[in-house]
Amino acid sequence: MMKPFSSSYLQRIATDPVKLLHLPILSSRSQGWENIVVEQFQHPPGEEHHHFNDEHAICLSMAPRPVRLLQIKGGRTYVGLQSRGDVSLTPAKMPHFARWESDDHCLQIRIASQFIQNIARETIATDPDQLELRLEFQVRDPQLEAIGTMLLSELKQENVGGKLYIESLANVLAVHLLRQYAVSKPDLTLYEIGLPQRQLSQILEYIDDHLNQEIKLADLATLLGISQSHLSHRFKQSIGFTPHQYLLQQRIERAKQLLKHSDQSILEIALLCGFSSHSHLSQQFRKLTGMTPNDYRIV
Predict the structure, then answer these.
(1) Partners of residue 67 on adjacent β-strands
(2) How far is it, in rounded angstroms, from Cα 60 to Cα 82?
(3) Would you say 181 and 89 are in contact if contact means Cβ atoms under 8 Å apart?
(4) What pLDDT score was predicted for residue 273?
(5) d(CA 250, CA 284)
(6) Residue 220 to residue 201: CA distance in whole angstroms
């Protein structure tokens, strides 16, 4: 049974910022991701109190069995069973206390509040400085769960040079939070046409010229002088692929050419095409072509 709390204890834990007591089993901190931190936790029964001033925190339950959980945040208390797939959202600057009675497993995603404001400034008419996200204790959100799953998959793979993909996911997450959890749900600006031909040509030429380098979504947006979310949306409208998908396809196409018309090693070809290793190229090559680079070379 969960022990009762005195009013003085509840007041103290609701106002005192305390550092996280549990260490993650996986963390994106060492991978250089911008605007977003993704950490996987797996810990025994216990409690913790965290307070993020500059980040909104999303917790996605991954526990195989329901966990009895107590949460206190925003002057409100919640006690109930948290099941796999349940999502909680804690806005920035809000202290959050949690106590759980059995082994817990969760994914925590923290996204910079300034990043959310920047996305809001690009997509909505209202003043982003007045924007607040809604506090949630337990909701079901298949799209948010899918984004979390993709972020966790990328975290486990530790792909070097995948920052464009992470930036794309961070943008998708930010727009989703604005659509679904803003206090006053804003009308997002939707662009009905793709990029003008001149701008599209600029982007495609830039990608082709820099395939062996790390290409960031921010670099492509700066090239055209537009926002990252605007670029992502209109690029896909123009050619049917996201910038990340197109970049990956072009790297594979260049690898095909080198495999057929050079005697360079697979590792050399991988590095020339912007992949971090032999295995990274092989993995992506097989996904798109159904065969390994070696098999393709000898066919």
Answers:
(1) 82
(2) 10
(3) yes
(4) 93
(5) 12
(6) 12
> pLDDT tier at 252 (50, 70, 90 boundaries)?
very high
Is the CB of residue 193 less than 8 Å from the CB of residue 234? yes
Q: Tell me 140's DSSP state.
A: E
- Residue 240: what pLDDT? 77
The pLDDT of residue 167 is above 60 = yes
- pLDDT, residue 3, reads 43
* Contact present, 248 and 284 (Cβ < 8 Å): yes
Is residue 243 a contact partner of residue 231, using CB atoms and an 8 Å limit?
Answer: yes
Strand bridging mode 46-50 / 36-43 = unpaired
Whether 7-181 and 190-299 share one fold: the answer is no
Mean pLDDT of the chain: 83
The domain made up of 190-299 has a fold known as Arc Repressor Mutant, subunit A (1.10.10)
Name the 3-class secondary structure at 298. Answer: helix
- Can you give the residue ranges of every domain in the chain? 7-181, 190-299
Domain at 7-181: CATH architecture: Sandwich (2.60)
Burial class (CB in 10 A: 0-12, 13-18, 19+), 257: exposed
Average pLDDT of the segment spanning 115-138:
79
Give 68-101 pLDDT, tens digit per residue.
888 888 778 888 888 899 999 999 988 888 888 8
Enumerate the H helices of the chain as residue ranges.
Answer: 7-15, 113-123, 142-157, 163-181, 197-209, 217-224, 228-239, 243-261, 266-272, 278-289, 293-298
- C-alpha distances out from residue 22 to 103, 231, 241, 277, Å: 13, 38, 40, 33
Q: Which two tokens stand for residue 110?
A: 């923290």
How far are the Cα atoms of 14, 50, 113, 230 from residue 93, in angstroms, in the given order? 12, 10, 10, 28
Residues, the chain = 299
DSSP-based three-state secondary structure for 20:
coil
